[in-house]
Amino acid sequence: MKHQRRSTDRRSHTDRREQTDSRGTGIQDGVYRYPTWQEQQVQFFTRYIFLLLGGLFFNLVDGITPSYWTLAQLNIVFGAYFVLNTLLYLHAAKFHIHPLRYHIAMWVDIIMVSACVLNDPYPIPPSLLVFIMVVLGNGMRYGMRLFAESMLGSFTASMLVLTARYTLSGAELSPGLIFLNLFGGIILIYAYILMGRIERSRHELELHSNLDTLTGLLNRRALQDIARTMFQRLHRNRRMFALLFADLDKFKAVNDELGHAAGDLVLKQFADIVRSSIRSTDIAARYGGDEFIMLLEDSDLNRAEAVASRIQGKVNAWAAANSIDVSVTFGLGVAPTHGDDFASLLEQVDQALYHSKSAHTGGGLALAECQQQQAIR
User: What tens digit of pLDDT does each residue of 253-288 get?
Assistant: First the structure.
């Protein structure tokens, strides 16, 4: 009953977190910012609005005709953009996190805007301003990497298109157009600098809010954010990962007999042992109390068992050297074999951990795939 109540509590807590995060801000991994699905929907609908405005501008405004293409050719481009944007939207609805799609959609935007600028009949084309929207729309949603790429891409595209315009027409560059490009460039560079500062501040804030203050490992909230991201990647590329659930044995006795200072020392030392036993790309978090979770990317049960055994050996050696009676029991599982979301995987691994602790006084290790006889030693 105790185990069932503990698993139910965890499951309900995870569900509440997932509901909150789905409406919250995006996730940052150091290279990209992964916006929420709601943010991406806003961007796609904005693209449709600009497409509609471009179509109305060239097709319905009196006296406006494309400069170098026929109206039929330009409408074919509009139609192709509509189809591509719709396909990208449908893909995004299924796979919210997909960095390659972010890049493809951005370059499709740049090509579409370039076509409009090329055919804009005004000497100072107002459609140039849409390049700024492309840069800001992509950069502020997906992080500094895409910001830099979209800014360089838009600058390059605008220069090529303007060169083509004035090469084909033989006209000279007007001071107004030169200043429009200078002002636009200054706006983008200034926005990039400000965005860089905002990203650094946000990263520092997220770093502090995501860490457990005692151990320096990730906290439960950050773990669930990252686990959700890993499952989304898993559903996209089928790269499995392992989950290790660690529970310190006799930890309550350490607190009761030696005091909470000794208990804190044990937790800190265990966190240090975990950090030294996993790769820099792996995830380690304090799940709560004396429970810890590790996520090992591109790992199967054999590697997970090797990591768990390594940690157990280091804990036993440290405990013996410091005359503290403490050990660690592990439950192991692999996604998607033992669960295709974090809650179901954790539940299976938690059951393995429970059976191992029932069968051993401490230091056990169990696999989630064995429902009745999980303990392997």
Answer: 999 999 999 999 999 999 999 999 999 889 999 999
The answer to whether residues 31 and 146 touch, using CB atoms and an 8 Å cutoff, is: no
Q: What is the pLDDT of residues 151-171, one digit of tens each?
A: 888 888 888 888 888 887 766
Does this model's pTM top 0.90? My answer is: no
- Nearest alpha carbon to residue 295 among 252, 245, 351, 337: 245
Where are any strands of DSSP class E within the chain?
27-28, 33-34, 241-249, 283-288, 291-297, 327-335, 365-367
Are 8 and 1 spatial neighbours (Cβ–Cβ below 8 Å)? no
> Which CATH number among 1.10.357.120, 3.40.50.2300, 3.30.70.270, 1.10.1660.10 corresponds to the domain 215-367?
3.30.70.270
Active site (catalytic) residues: 290
**Six-digit token pair at 98?**
């997909």
Domain ranges of the chain: 31-210, 215-367
Question: Are 280 and 292 in contact, with CB atoms under 8 Å apart?
Answer: no
* Percentages of the chain per state (helix, strand, coil), in multiples of 5: 65, 10, 20
Q: Which residues in the chain land under pLDDT 50?
A: 1-25, 370-377
